[in-house]
Amino acid sequence: xxxxxxxxxxxxxxxxxxxxxxxxxxxxxxxxxxxxxxxxxxxxxxxxxxxxxxxxxxxxxxxxxxxxxxxxxxxxxxxxxxxxxxx
Length: 87
Fold this sequence. Notes:
By secondary structure, the protein is mainly α. The protein has two domains: 4-42, no CATH class; 48-87, no CATH class. 41% of the residues lie in helices and 7% in strands. The chain has helices at residues 4-13, 32-36, 51-71; strands at 19-21, 40-42. Strands 1-2 form a two-stranded parallel sheet. The longest helix is centred in the C-terminal third of the chain and has 21 residues, at 51-71. It is elongated and about 55 Å long. It starts with a helix and ends in a 16-residue tail after the last helix.
C-alpha cells in the first residue's frame, strides 16, 4: 500500500528516483500530478494480463459456480457478498 500523495511529493523532490504504477488510489482516475512527472511510467491495471493468469481466473469462475450449485456457497466470496465461503 502506498500513500499516493506522499509518493507524488517524493517523486517530485527526487527522494524517489522513479516509479512504475498500474494501480491508483481512485481508479480509474489518475492524478494529473503523476501524469506530469517525468520519472513515472503509468499503465492501466494490466498485471494479470498473462495467458496463464487469465486461464486461472476463468477456472476460478467455473469452480465458484460449481461450488454454488453443489453447496450453495462460493470459494472466493467478496466482502460485499453475504454468502459464506466453502471451507
